[in-house]
Amino acid sequence: MTQIDEHNQPRDRRGEWRPNRAVRFMPLFDWPTTPRTLAKWFFGIPGFLVPWYAIYLGFTLVAYLWFTPEIARMQSLSPGWALEILARNVVMVTLFTGGLHLWLYRLRGQGRWAKYNGSWPAERDKRFLFNNQVYDNVFWSIVGVVIWTGFEVGLWWGYANGALPFSGVAENPVWFVLWMLLMPFWRNFHFYWIHRLIHWPPLYRSVHYLHHKNVNVGPWSGLAMHPVEHLLYFSCLLIHLVVPSHPLHMMFNGMATALGPGASHSGFDEIVFGDEMAVQNDKLMHYLHHRYHSVNFGENAVPLDKWFGSFHDGTPEADARFRAARTAR
């Protein structure tokens, strides 16, 4: 039974709303496709890079230029500079994820407009620490920031001591730009496989269950993970042990990995400010993963879910196929 909410949006009997478009993957894998179509998807406004990856890159540049210790200090491991990086990372996540939460959930600045789930986070629920979903999520997110910082500190120490493969801007400008543009695809690829791994029943029951307590997700739900899952999730940074990189590549990789879940778990299809400005979010794909658990393990840059049979595009037809497959199992 369909109901119309206060924003004139249709919601089903569970209070769920979905956009009137199916989830799509990068047009690189459509056939036929054209360079113009690819360029528009990748560089357009909005597009794959803008707004979210552009925002993550902005945070990265601010952190690198003004809030990163001098590399000479990093030749020796010490609590001083490591804690500076930890403090910077906590502030960055709080500004981004906390800002999304403040606008969307605390102030409810756009009400339920473009909200996938019609309910708000649980405030009295014994499944969560402190009986509160948001407090629980913030706690586990900060644990994740500590683990991310551990990876970053180790890599900075490696760069400072010449122990990691390095590629500078002046020496290899083409590779510098190309590797920065490829970083989101690496993250998509890595995320899909570690996500499939932690859905293996023994790991799901002991580790990943903590993240999936969040069915009705919010920005802080993104990094609300078991520490073992944090270790696996941020292990995407280990690629810099083997691929020649500049520290900016490493920082962008880490920043996007830490901030990205805030956007992908916002629970909203777009972020609206006033009557004029709206930022496309388009995170239905991952919302459906939290809704059904056994679909959409990756993201939409690389169609691994489509290739391996776990894709749900959000349409009623996909719902019917999912229910039929579940019944068959």
TrEMBL record:
Keyword Transmembrane helix: yes
Domain of life: Bacteria
UniProt GO molecular function: iron ion binding; oxidoreductase activity
Location of the protein in the cell: Membrane
GO biological process, one term: lipid biosynthetic process
PANTHER family: STEROL DESATURASE
Protein name: C-5 sterol desaturase
Provenance organism: Litoreibacter ponti
